[in-house]
Amino acid sequence: MFKVKTVRHLVLVSALLPVVAGCATTAEQCDPGKVNNVFAAASCSASGGFEAHLAATRLEVEALRVEAAASRTRASDAEREAKRLVGNRSALQQKMASERRDLDRLRLKLAGMRVEGEKDRARQAVLNEQLKAVEANLANMNNSGQSAQEIAALEADIAARKEVIAKLSGRAMQE
Questions:
Q1: Angle CA 16–18–24, to nearest 5
Q2: Model confidence at 61, in pLDDT bands (50, 70, 90)?
Q3: Residue 80 pLDDT > 90, yes or no?
Q4: Structural domain spans, the chain
Q5: How far apart are CA 32 and CA 29, in angstroms?
Q6: How many C-beta atoms surround the C-beta of residue 135 within 10 A?
Q7: Which residues of 47-68 are buried (b: 16+ CB within 10 A; e: fewer)?
Q8: pTM surpassing 0.70?
Q9: CA 78 to CA 158: how far, in whole Å?
Q10: What does the record list as coiled-coil region(s) (predicted)?
């Protein structure tokens, strides 16, 4: 049957197996795709290393999913804000166009006005003041380019967040 020498070797190997294989029983070292020898696999299986690795991987995937959901929420908030700013910009552009038309009308009135008396001079002075007020208002509107800059910044932020979401989704699906 078995020789005494062979039996002694088997006993010695089986006694040393837990000592030698016990070194590779951490969850990180018990990755089923990376364990490449029978002793390490037996040790990982016996010590629960495979299950610990699987649990750690599941926790990591869940954390990635939570992070992706939070990024999607932030991206949708940023998109809503960008749409609001676009609407504000459209309203501002319409208001500016209206102000320009009013300004042009006042300029035409002043250009065609003949000053013949005190009443006409007073009327012209009032129109000049109105013209200056409209010009100042229009200049303020032209100088407030913040909304366009805010929109561009939000669009860049949205694009960056969508890229992060895509990467996170890809990583979560791979694991």
A1: 120
A2: very high
A3: no
A4: 80-174
A5: 9
A6: 14
A7: bebbebbeeeeeeeeeebeeeb
A8: no
A9: 6
A10: 61-144
